[in-house]
Amino acid sequence: MDEHTNTANLLEAAKTGNQKAESEILSKLFARFLPIVSLNLQKYSVLAETIDLEMKCHEVCQNAILEVKRLYPLNSEKFSVKRAVTVLHNVIDDFIINALYELARSSNSEAEKFLFALIRKKLMIYLRSKIWRY
After folding, report:
1. What is the pLDDT of residues 42-96, one digit of tens each?
2. φ and ψ of 28, to 5 deg
3. Which residue, 88, 15, 83, is CA-closest to 57?
4. Cβ pair 92, 60 in contact under 8 A
5. Are the CB atoms for 88 and 37 separated by under 8 Å?
6. Of 28, 23, 35, 79, nearest to 60 (Cα)?
7. What is the DSSP annotation of the chain?
8. Average pLDDT, the chain
9. What is the pLDDT of residue 2?
10. Which end of the chain has less Cβ packing within 10 Å, N or C?
C-alpha cells in the first residue's frame, strides 16, 4: 500500500509541474511497459528470428512513452494509466504489423500468416464494437 501512496503522491507532484516526479513516473511506466512489450513480441516467432527482441522492446517502450507524453501530458487532466496502457497497446500493434508487413513483402510465408491473423483479429474487434442498424 505504501508504494501505491508513493506513486499517487508522485503523480500529484508531476501534475503540478515537478520535473523530477514526472521523470520518476515515466520511468515507472517504462518498467511496467517493458514486460508487456516483451510478451507481445515473443508471440511472433518470426520476429524473434529476425530482430533483436531486447533492443526492440526498449525501442517500442520508449516510443510508447513519447506517445503518451504527446497525447496525455502528465500535467493535464486527461492523463491516466488506463489511457497510457491503451496507447502502449496501439504502439505495440503498429510495430508488429509494420514488422510483419516488411517480412511478408520479402516472401516470408510465416510472417504473412501472422499478419493476416492479426488483421482479422483487429477487424473482428472493430466489428463487434460497432452497433449495426438495419
Report:
1. 999 898 888 888 999 999 999 999 999 999 988 888 888 899 999 999 999 999 9
2. -65, -40
3. 88
4. yes
5. yes
6. 35
7. -HHHHHHHHHHHHHHTT-HHHHHHHHHHHHHHHHHHHHHHHHT-HHHHHHS-HHHHHHHHHHHHHHHHHHHS-TTSTT--HHHHHHHHHHHHHHHHHHHHHHHHHTT-HHHHHHHHHHHHHHHHHHHHHSPP--
8. 88
9. 62
10. C
Number of residues that this document lists for the chain: 134
Q: Can you read off the three cell numbers belonging to residue 88?
A: 502502449
How far apart (Å, rounded) are the C-alpha atoms in residues 122 and 106?
23
What angle, rounded to 10 degrees, do the helices at 53-71 and 81-105 form? 130
Phi, psi dihedrals of residue 61, rounded to the nearest 5° = -60, -45
